[in-house]
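Bumping with the actual sequence this time:
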Amino acid sequence: MSKNNTSTLIISTVAAVGACAVASYFVYKNLFSKKYKVVFVLGGPGSGKGTNCSRIVSKFGYIHLSAGDLLREERASGSALADMINNYIREGKIVPAEVTVRLLRTAMSQSGGTKFLIDGFPRDMMNLECWQKEMSAIAETQFLLFLDCPQEIMLSRLLERGKTSGRSDDNEESIRKRFLTYEQSTRPIIEYFRSEGKTREVDSNRDIEQVFAEVSLHFGGV
């Protein structure tokens, strides 16, 4: 092979390698620059969060993660955190933010999805601050869906659910504690997102079809 041909081959090879490197860079950049899309779903215990999340999943393709369910699963796992989580839930108290955020992040990563409904979180400002610190680089909050319902209606729903749910916190004493925690700690979260223009409020003290029709309006353009 002549010197000219050799030079041409080297230049072509370097150019091809360079092109591959550039292409790989952009694939890597696109893969890891895409953030999770997150909608928080809040409302008092028994406001219809689980019911509406199930229907949003079916209609709009989100993955539903319940902070409470993840905590209950961890409690049942027999892990070192189990006893602590059990005590917090029984007393209607909020589990330390770092624990909940870690469980949520793990569930999101393992799901393979990109769009998430996170139900029952953040429950207080410490939850929100921990989320922002740990997740802001990889997750974008689209909005907060707030399901508003009177306490007596929620109490009635939860007591009825308690007949078959097997949940230790579906009794009136625990429910009243959860209502108190919700009003003191979670309401400020709803108002924070409202001040950011990101709270979408729906009256959930209506027929489920009416409620979901209004909920759907908030997801139509997302």
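The tokens above came from a reply further down the thread. Confidence is low (pLDDT under 50) at residues 9-32.
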